[in-house]
Amino acid sequence: MRKMLPAFLGTAALLAFSWWVLPQLPDQVATHWGLDGQPDGWSSARFGAFMLPGMMLVMSVIMAALPGIDPLKKNYAFHGSVYFLLANVVVLFMGAVHLLVLGSALGWPVNMRAVLPVLLGALFLFIGRMLPRMQPNWFMGIRTPWTLSSEEVWRKTHQVGATSFTIAGVAVMLVGVLVPNAFATKFMLAAIMVGAVWPVVYSYLEWRREKEEASRP
């Protein structure tokens, strides 16, 4: 639990803040935004105030416990710091989104159409930077049947994933800020999809190539 302390502290701070601003929130809080950047989904004030912090708390507990039940937990001696750093960042990313949701409901000058792509792109950039440092495990990284069956495929796939996530992150940030229309959002979604799917495809191709080479006389 100690290694997830930043996430727990961030969650506690957001829960306190949410409780403090709850009386100031409107009866309905925007919790979803469409491709045009306008809110199109609404929740009650109490749900909007505590849903994401509740998810953050649950995720923090789960992420703290997973290394202890991982069949490959011996590898955390080599990449445990990366695992917990990334776990904390993901939870705190959710906290940043929650602040934006509350700020929008409170009337802050929040441009969700511009800020969310920057946050999401930055998250992808950070994940891309961390991927090559991940060792085989069952809970974080590009976990496919092919990466988990070969340490070499895992290593190569995470190097490819680093580039893929970095390109996707930069594309999301730039397009989200510079092209403020619905087409830009579709492009960002496509960039995220390609960035996430290509390493999975690559892992299979690399695994097949490795097997073919091993079978040659």
Task: Describe the model.
The protein has 217 residues and is mostly helical. The chain folds into two domains: 1-110; 112-217, no CATH class. Helices cover 71% and strands 6% of the residues. It is built from six helices and two strands. The chain has helices at 5-21, 45-69, 76-105, 112-130, 151-178, 182-215; strands at 28-33, 39-44. A two-stranded antiparallel sheet has the order 1-2. A hairpin with a 5-residue loop joins strand 1 (28-33) and strand 2 (39-44). Helix 1 runs parallel beside helix 3, helix 2 (45-69) runs antiparallel to helix 3 (76-105) and helix 4 packs antiparallel against helix 5. The longest helix has 34 residues, at 182-215. It starts with a helix and ends with a helix. The relative contact order is 0.11. The model has no long low-confidence stretch (mean pLDDT 91).
Secondary structure: elements and pairs:
Elements: H1 5-21, E1 28-33, E2 39-44, H2 45-69, H3 76-105, H4 112-130, H5 151-178, H6 182-215
Antiparallel strand pairs: 1-2
The major sheet is characterized as:
2 strands, antiparallel
Record the strand order, biggest sheet. 1-2
Tally of distinct domains: 2
Compute the CA-based radius of gyration. Answer: 20 Å
Beta-strand segment tally: 2
Helical residues, percent: over 70%
Molecular shape: flat
Class inferred from helices and paired strands: mainly alpha
What number is the mean pLDDT? 91
Termini gap: 51 Å
Give a quick rundown of the structure.
With 217 residues, this protein is mainly alpha-helical. The chain is built from 6 helices and 2 strands. The chain has 2 domains: 1-110; 112-217, no CATH class.
